[in-house]
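look at this:
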Amino acid sequence: MTPAASSFPPPLESYPPVAGGLVDVLASRAAAEPFNVVATGIFVAAIVHTFAAKRFLVLAHAVQHRHHERERAAGRAASQSVLAELLEFVGEIEVVFGLWAVVLLLAITQWYGWATAKDYVAHTVDYTEAVFVFVIMAIAATKPIVALAETLLRRVARLGGETPAAWWLTILIVGPLLGSLITEPAAMTLCALLLGRQLYARGPSARLAYATLGLLFVNVSLGGTLTHFAAPPVLMVARPWQWDVAFMLTHFGWRAVLGIVIATGAYFILLRRELRALGAPSPEGADVAATPVPPWIVAVHVGFLIWTVVNSHYVVLFLGGFLFFLGFVKATSEHQDPVDLASPVLVGFFLAGLVIHGGLQGWWIAPVLGSLSAVPLFVGALVLTAFNDNALITYLATLVPSLGPALRIAVVAGAVSGGGLTVIANAPNPAGQSILARHFDEGISPLGLLAGAALPTIVVALCFLLL
């Protein structure tokens, strides 16, 4: 029987209880709602696509090269190959989940009808996080905010002589911890922009480039856990589980700081020779503000940033504020650079596609989480986070009624520990990927990112498990 639109996806409590183990529960739910398997299959295909994205870019360049050779032989002016453009589009990680969301939408329409598909994407899926990341990324990347962040971090880097190593340590330790105040997406944007100028513009080796990227993603995932309002996976549970700043500092904050310091210190020891060998930055590495930005303009930008953070749950308020912000930027254009909306739009599109898929994965994620004790739950959340946004993992954990206090801590700790393993593991990661991808030949390799994040992930996981 075709269910009504209002029951799609079926509430988790609507599935009949099963006496067997986890496999029996999943088999029962798949039998009760066969479309579960279809939705998860499409989601898995999208994940595989993210790992294959670099191959599409390489193929696009090869197709374009052959196109130029044919035109040169025919005596025609060089032009763009339509096929190469399409392959490059398919190879952009930011569009992957959106493309497969179209496939999912067609599948829902075929299975249940257009009314159900339309109701799901228009009313069931919550796009607040995607819109928030778009706005906060656009504001945080403006000249006054980056200039202020660079000034503050420069004072710390000055303690080490403002060498590349000093900047590297400062950005990767202090920068992510700012995420507990300005939110993780803002911290990721600022850190990625500063790393682009202070490290990547100096031409680091591939090993240093990927190690830094992996460490950045892991540290930002941890850096927002000192408070209950800054990290997306914490935001999902803070209200239903009544976690506040004191709780976060006691159970997460000090471990997060320790993990960031130890992981960054370990990579510094391993990479110190490469950091010391870096040459002077290119012109791109110069300070963001060739001329000082008036303090009152910086203050207004900070005010808009605070407004967005405080009202992060209310799209009408922070999006309305963003429109006023754009007007202010235009009025003070003499002291501004053009607002870059391309990268924030792509990142927002990425996250919107991810939540469309993620909203149909609860049928298997919730029972998997509910079947584990504390340590396996920690490890399970960490592993699942690599294939899902960690905010989705923690949200689904709030739907499991049997989770006690220790299990709640375990699932959130695992989710934030695994937040740097892939681009899709943590909501701010696409922002960092979008900003830094141009510094990597043929784009960022998912396997390279996984390798770079492996050691920091192990370090922070041990901090949560053993301390």
Q: What stands out?
A: Residues 108 and 114 are 8 Å apart (CA to CA). The chain has 22 helices and no strands. Residues 1-5 have pLDDT under 50 and may be disordered.
